[in-house]
Amino acid sequence: MATRFDPFQEMDRMLGQMFAADRASATMPMDLYRSGDHYVLHVDLPGADPGTIDVNVEDRTLTIRAQRSSRTEQDVQWLAKERPVGTYARQLTVGRGLALDAISATYTDGVLTLSIPVAEDAKPRRIEVQHGASTAQIGTTADAQASA
């Protein structure tokens, strides 16, 4: 079996373990898109315990938190330990026009999905234009009948 050793990658890994103990908080990739009358947010949370996932909204700030615990096997010698542990956290400032009280969330296969509906008053709507006789013609007719 061939073994490849990259001393720079190994040094980077060791320094990362020593100085970036809470690297998990920096790695919460997401996708956001609009589909019809709601926004969809997919957040990668691989290995997060579903019971630790917390989504809350305060004012116009959406906060997502989750915890990934470290494995606690006894009597093991780690050969590589690259998966981050700790608390994931991400905050997003959301704009007006969203129904923040109607957000739904699901967690499947390591992906947290939020569906954020657009508020009713922010949805585009068509305003019907009324057609009718002009005011000047109505006034002229009424004046002609009064003088007769």
TrEMBL record:
Pfam families in the record: HSP20 (PF00011)
Domain of life: Bacteria
Domain SHSP: 21-132
PROSITE patterns from the UniProt entry: SHSP (PS01031)
InterPro entries named in the record: A-crystallin/Hsp20_dom, HSP20-like_chaperone, Small_HSP
Family named by the database record: Belongs to the small heat shock protein (HSP20) family.
Protein name: Hsp20/alpha crystallin family protein
